[in-house]
Amino acid sequence: xxxxxxxxxxxxxxxxxxxxxxxxxxxxxxxxxxxxxxxxxxxxxxxxxxxxxxxxxxxxxxxxxxxxxxxxxxxxxxxxxxxxxxxxxxxxxxxxxxxxxxxxxxxxxxxxxxxxxxxxxxxxxxxxxxxxxxxxxxxxxxxxxxxxxxxxxxxxxxxxxxxxxxxxxxxxxxxxxxxxxxxxxxxxxxxxxxxxxxxxxxxxxxxxxxxxxxxxxxxxxxxxxxxxxxxxxxxxxxxxxxxxxxxxxxxxxxxxxxxxxx
Length: 262
Fold this sequence. Notes:
- The radius of gyration is 18 Å and the shape is globular.
- Strands 3, 4, 5, 6, 7, 8, 9, 10 and 11 form a nine-stranded antiparallel beta sheet that branches. Strands 15-12-18-19 form a four-stranded mixed beta sheet, with no helix packed on it.
- It is mainly beta.
- Strand 6 (about 75-85) and strand 7 (about 90-100) form a beta hairpin.
- The protein has strands spanning about 25-30, 30-35, 35-40, 45-50, 55-60, 75-85, 90-100, 105-110, 115, 125-135, 140-145, 155-165, 175-180, 185-190, 205-210, 215-220, 225-235, 240-245, 250.
């Protein structure tokens, strides 16, 4: 059920992986939930279209849908792609740009430069804010980009559903992944309460992308206890886990839903 439809918006010769501190579903800026991922890179770094399609927005005002210099996305581009998923249209959004090279109605190819990275809008430094939207082109229709961007060769993605012992989703739960080979740590939190949407199949509330293939410890503190699981990340795939509070971990893949995935 994986759908790595998009290439990277930043070329491989630059920092082109999302920041661990600004993942999808995290809460920032006065409890506003983050609806994309951020690629930190120097101002002026080329920004690339992640897939082919038509530009439907280029300029200030993408959040409110009209020209607005105070728009939190700053200078932004939206592409309506000429491919979709399960009969629904896909859009990608590129925010906080310094310059834009495209205009509405223009067709772009995957990998084509659409402008330069900057720090316009509501930012704490230069970076590219990248969103994937499914079905509708609005703030409420985003999905986690780390489930849509193809990982580097030999790397994979981890998704999970973190619940308490009663089966309720837990918001903002810190999670640490530690490579058993290198000892390197990756940090994440489960999604916040609003404005984010899980994948129709995974129903996740946590994703960590760009993980080198290998075996990882999953560590989290719950109800005063340190609970540790173990999972193998495989290249080019999404691996999945459920966390059930004091009952611990389960590594079964989700059941396929009846009918089409939406």
